Amino acid sequence: MLTDLADIIGDIQERFQVAERTFLFLDFDGTLAPIEADFAAPKLDPGVGETLALLASQPSLVTTIISGRAVEDLFSRIRLEGLIYAGNYGLEIFGRSLRFVDPLAAGRRMRLERLSNEIAARLLPIAGAVVEFKGLTASVHYRQAAESDYAEIQESVRAAAARNGGLFRLLYGLKAIEILPGTNWHKGAAALWILNRLRGERALTIYVGDDAADEEAFQVLPDAITIKVGDGQPTHAGYRLPHPAAVHEFLRWLAALTAPRAQRA
To answer: Which residues are identified as catalytic?
Structure first.
């Protein structure tokens, strides 16, 4: 696996030369912005925002921000036109004339809200455990909880979800448990949905992400350039970058590479 930015760029540049269009998928937390102890705290660095604006302005490049955050929350942290926003792990998508909300997830919204309230009540005595209801999905954050409480938090969430049969599935992230509808829809399915509607011949796909949910995308995009952000965790991605600062450097290079095409278009 290549982990040096120069080597990754060399590989991509060769494939880029024969591509007519490039599709770029970017996670937000841990990829565009560093992970924070408070899940509400991450903000996009102005420099990263400027680079995203350059990418969004180029017709040969289609950029999607794909995140576990609700789509309104995601858009509020970036606020750029010309991008596609895929929130709640791709269960809701808008931008560049695309509109999608997964009907099964929408139908389970009230059931998920009751489940979220049940878990929040169970975890109320545990300092640092927070349940975030996001409409189509929910997150149980425990980054600020004591490590001695991790097992109780995880078991409480597992037990509550199990009482709902197969309506919901759990995805274990970085000191967070995601509660999602029990369907085959995930970030990878959302990426394929977008590609099937916009992709032409000789398209290059690049997907960059850091978490367990991104692994589901890496697995269904075998022909894509897949980049795992962060060290240590096993991955299905073909490449690895160490942190969001390296991702920004990569995006700056990509913006410079695609700019001449935009000028000729």
So the answer is: 27
